[in-house]
Design goal:
single chain, 138 residues, alpha/beta, Signal recognition particle alu RNA binding heterodimer, srp9/1, 2 domains, 4-stranded mixed β-sheet, 8 strands, elongated, PhnB-like
């Protein structure tokens, strides 16, 4: 058994996937748009204008798979109550990944040495996803 995060975006999932590709080296493993569904959605489930939005995607960051889509409920998506923790090999990689994720976002705890790691910091990226970046102790 395993748990995989599933992120719902406000119509900008494809932009987020490209950002994570650039910032983290994420690789898209699967992407299906609403118009590509093999079965039509139940009436009223998908609002007009969603045909080219992402119905389902999965992408790999290192050894982890994250799933994502554009939310079709018509409600504003808000990521609350969780953070994705990104463990990296060393301080230099932590600085590189933290800086890339922080571009256009908001730093909540600057990257720095802590009692539990040589480098740790927290931020919310430009899409509203909260991250913790931690370098493995040497």
């Amino acid at each position: 058994m395993h748990i995989q995060p599933y992120l719902h975006f406000n119509g900008n999932c494809e932009e987020a996937l490209a950002f994570y590709g650039q910032a983290l080296g994420a690789k898209i493993e699967m992407l299906m748009r609403y118009r590509e569904s093999p079965e039509p959605p139940p009436p009223g489930m998908v609002p007009p204008g969603m045909d080219d939005k992402v119905m389902h995607a999965s992408f790999r960051i290192g050894d982890s798979v994250v799933m994502a889509s554009d939310d079709c409920t018509g409600q504003a998506v808000s990521f609350q109550g969780f953070q994705l923790s990104l463990g990296v090999a060393d301080v230099a990689d932590a600085a590189r990944r933290f800086s890339a994720l922080a571009e256009g976002g908001r730093i909540t705890m600057p990257l720095g040495k802590t009692f539990f790691a040589p480098s740790f910091g927290m931020l919310t990226d430009r899409f509203g996803v909260a991250w913790m970046v931690i370098a493995a102790p040497q």
